[in-house]
Amino acid sequence: MKYKKIKLNKGATLYYVKNNINKISNIEISFDCGARCDEIPGMSHLIEHMFFTGTKKYNDQEITKMYFDFIGSNAYTSSRNIAFSGDILTKELENYVKLVSMLINETTFAQKNIDKEVKVVQQEISVYNDKYNETSYDFNLYNLTGLDVPKYGILGSNESVASVTTKDIKKYVKKYFVTENMNIFLVTPLSLTKVKKMLERTIVKEVPSKENFEKLPVFYYKNYDKVFYKSKYKEIDKCYVYINFPIKQNIYDLEFANKFRIVTRIMNDTSDGLNKTLRQEKSLVYYSRINALFGTESGSVGFMTECDKKNVDEVIKTVIDYYNSIYENGFEPTFLKKSKRIEQFMNDRENAYVGKERSKLKDLCAFGKVPSEKKDEKIRKKLTIEECNSMFREAYNPSKLSVSVFGDIKKSEYMSEKEFRALVRK
Predict the structure, then answer these.
(1) DSSP code of residue 136
(2) Does this model's pTM top 0.90?
(3) Do residues 48 and 172 lie in contact, with contact meaning Cβ atoms separated by under 8 Å?
(4) Which end of the chain, N or C, is less packed with Cβ atoms under 10 Å?
């Protein structure tokens, strides 16, 4: 991807790609903060909502109409940022940027509006809590990181969001919504010169500056010392089981990440036999998958499944046997060609959408680099089954293997840590 990274006035950063395909501009205006900065769980997500509750000049309905009348416009909160994004007609791009600037600078954050919006967020929390597989994922992240942010989730709790005040929000916005903490990702038909001038006379000029601002580091998976973790939720029909092991390599090693994605895909392909055993032959699970997560310092490979609590031990034993079998016997060679074809197909399909360029720019901001598609393709072609086996054997670290169990189940109802360790390859 041919992108340009430009430092704008007052410390803002622009990631620019020229789009010669259509008249749509893909934009994201992102501030590095999010749930990881929450002193009160759920506050950052509530703040995202609050940007649309009104200024002194416009009420909430007028603001909502002005913002969401742009095609594809949206806003979101993650664990590491709050962002305004959209697929905007290029002729309306400047108006969109000006509106975002107004939301940041002129929203009143009135307490009556907070009280109203808290009820909206609490409804989201109720819906979210019904999706136990997603909640279990938060607890698995808590197991891996030891951090409290995933424990509470981005939404927070009914009690935590209800405790947020105008003073709390204004303090947060003043701290993080500054130009030095702002990244603008833009894929557009406009020239770089026009874009730079437009941004610097609008949002860069209008958003406050904080010269001594220090960007926050990105957190990812570090701690694997918790073998089991159980939630406090009760009366859940299914348990969710995660069986993880860490990998030393990180997202900055783009060649490794590209290769290990193939390894993970092969693990999923070869796990068809495992899934068949778990689902069809033994009727132990409802759903299962394997995925790899790469962080700035380390990563993890994890098997996730849903099962009845009476089957937890048998599921863990079956998956550990699968991991051990790959270590001893390696992957089936036929799966490598299939995985390469699937990976190429996925890339070709995504290349049909201009939005992929914006996604790459987001990766650039998060990880400092963007893979070269041509280089990736060469890496995939040269990758051998022997190399895949070697990478798995090097990564599979039994002494660091961890299990997260989420559900209405007591620790005494499933195997002990000693029994678990006895299963693992020595």
Answers:
(1) H
(2) no
(3) no
(4) C
